[in-house]
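Entry for the shared binder. Reason: the reviewer on the internal report wants the predicted structure included alongside the sequence.
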Amino acid sequence: MSDPRPPEDGGAWPERDLEPRDLEPGGPPPDDAATGSELPPAHPPQDAPTTEAAPTTTGFSAAGDGWDPKLDGDRRRPTTAEQAVPWLIGLLLALAGMVIVLLALIFSGPDALGGSEPSPTPSSAPSAGGSPTPAPSASVPAQVTTSEAPTTQPTPVVTPTPAPTYGPLEMVYLGRQTATAPIYLLRRDFSTADDAKVMAEASAGISEYAWAPDGTHGAAIISGRAVALTPGQSARDLGDGIQAVTFSLDSETVYAVRIVADGANDRAEVLAIDFASAGSTLLTGIEYPRPVTAPERPVKEAQYLDNGGPVRIYATNDGNLVVWILGAPATYRVDPADGGVMNVAGEPALWSPDGRFHIALTESSDSSTVITQQDRGGQAVSSVTVAGLVSHIRWAPTRNEIVFTLGQATSGGGVRQNLLVWDLVDGSAPSPLTSNGASFGADWLGVAQSWQP
């Protein structure tokens, strides 16, 4: 009988009838010689399945077992092209990895090219079993991998709003067009030729005002009603029955005094009003006998009103408030933190921004005033004499200048008031800022006056 093993020269298997047998998968074919039977004659070609001769092939299993056509049937051997497909896929993946690494190096900048370790060359060699092993992933420089990771957005940096700037002689002040016209609140930089701008007006006129130290907004009293003033916005109500106002040093709070009758006495209510919301808090109430007042000579009365009138409030540089009321038995210091009240000697003194100098006035009837700049020891540093009565002195941002109101009596019994500025350094005479005879009570914009108790 014929040998069941494949021919040594790789020739074709001899044709034979394949009967169903109990075979272990992958086991050797049974030995016909052991059964002692001969092969039956071949069946007709149309009925018997035949196998075509095929060349000897190399197995793909890990154990090296060959493919046995007697056991596995008539299977077609993979072509050379089919066997090359996995190799080609591996090669393409390796080439793609190399391209990605090169692009990463190019777009990560010159630092990555100069400071990174060389990337390993992807391998395209197949494994021993015949299937190509996937190429190892190429290492990507740190500069590239971090760009693909989720990035944390930087915290936005809030740029503070720059502080407003003002002209060297920019001020707010009270004025009227004629002697009988209502008093307006005006704004002007006297270092330019620009006309004054109207900040607030009313048919009844503006009786008092205060401007915030930062120069951005103010408050005015119109017929006993306090209103908030912000350039470019409509006026807002801050409270009724108000006689005097001033601002806190941080420009956010308006301190106000309201006088309320209480039988034979008066009670001064000191309020803290939030400028933004107009919400108010009663700090304290000060009761005192109702005073009896009488008018002064016209020029003296004008000076008195320009200095604040019968009710005045100051925010001093120690954080307290000082309330002065004509005819009251004392001047009152109020702590805005707890509403505590203490009696003091008199009104606070106004000092230069550096706290080294203040102004003393010496009057001669209604005709003239000597203005003297004094140091802490009371020594005169400079002085000048002007014709008329001086009121409402205010320091410039530096100690170099002061602005004031000069009131002069007219032949008809009236009063002319104008604004003057005095340069304390060059020693020259004060220079007029206005000449219409109806301007008074000027405050520099953006300057916190140093009121000291």
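Summary line for the report: The longest helix spans residues 80-107.
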